[in-house]
Amino acid sequence: MFTKRGILRTGSATLAAVLSLAAQPVRAQSSSESKRIEELEREITELRREVNALKNERAPVPEGKMKTKITYDGKTYVEKAVVEEKPPPVYVQQRGPELKLVLGGYIQMNFEDGDVSAFEGRFGETALKDRFRLRRARINLTGDFAEQFDFKVEGDFENSDGLNANRTAFEATDIFINWHQFPWAQVKMGQWKAPFGLEQLTPDPSLIIIERSLPTGAITPERQIGIQLWGKPLAVIWPDHADLLTYYAGIFNGNGRNITNNDNNNFMYVGRLESTVFKNLLGKGSFLKLGADILNSRDDKGTNISQSLNLLVNDDGSLSPFVLPGADERTAWSVDAWLEAGPFDLIGEFLQERVHPRTVNGVSPGFDGFTTDGFYVTAAYFLIPKKFQAVVQWQHLNPGQKGNDGISSIVAGLNYYIRGDDLKLMLNYIHTWSDFRAANPEFGKDDFNEVIGRMQLMF
Questions:
Q1: Taking the mean position of all CA atoms in its chain, how far away is CA 351?
Q2: What share of the chain is helix, strand, coil (3-state, %, to 5)?
Q3: Count of C-beta atoms within a 10 Å radius of residue 318
Q4: What is the pLDDT of residues 349-368, one digit of tens each?
Q5: Count of CB atoms within 10 A of residue 256's CB?
Q6: CA dist., res. 188 & res. 183, Å (int)
């Protein structure tokens, strides 16, 4: 660059000198002088060409952050201003033609002290010890296609690995494909939560009580593998009131998630209706949501019919998962309501399940039929809008397998929303009492206390 600038300056100076000389008056023009003038004119013309050529060779100043680059050609060092190149950012490129691809997940870390999980019937012979617990550690991928398909793939690092009750491993939670061409008739297939129970269907990060209630865990079917037709019939003809009616109708294997084979040739049939009414009637964002569910399933021996929590009543009044000793047919139903008005929430649900023994190929089922029912009522109020929330809950389960075998709990808690559900702290105190143990004091104490704290982070 310095060499080109020197040539340009020298050429310009020479041209100016020549023009100055040429402008002087000529007193006499001999033939030799005329020749000299012609030569000067040729030189001037040549200098003009060289100057224009040098001007054209000057590159435009590039945009962006500049840096000085020094090169050596074996004789001299040359400085040159060049654009500083930035390294390309790290990114993930989807393989297919997805319109949207979103990577996310969340972590929930618990501290549990006192009579740990006593509200789930874990006392006496099933009691647990104080602990720090990675409750959930999930990662998920969701996406949309232009052809009106969406999907979700999610797994949890904190599920039992099936080899050791005290060890965890990565396991699938939600894996499904959903065709949403018609809002009123969508088709979903894969593995996800069967549409039964308001509290069960509420996403884990959105819960206002740290753990779901015992009635929900004992009766609802949780995640299943199957196919479902669902939609909002008013979405097209009355879009402003699409939430006035939502329906779900699914057919599932019925024996739980991540199980390759069905337990028999029968399926679980699940249906749910939801209606959101009085939207914004009691203030912006207010609503009343009503729901009702029904379920029917014919199960074979060895199927766990309490896949989320516990249902089987042990001899000391504690609870364990109910694994069928013989075939059954069960029918369950529930009703629920959720009122939200400004800083106040009121949520309630009643659930019932009837389990009938079933003889298959002349084999006796080996247990008596029973009816389980339960309910919970939850109230919450934001002491500081969208930041600090107080909650209380009353829950009760009647397993219906022994006389007076009910378990009840009262929960009081505080939630601090640092950044909504993305980053929040939760604290619950739970007092539980067992009707069976109160009536049979020889088994030990009948009331229990626990404190649970949780840190939640979503990404």
A1: 27
A2: 20, 45, 35
A3: 23
A4: 999 999 999 999 888 899 99
A5: 19
A6: 12
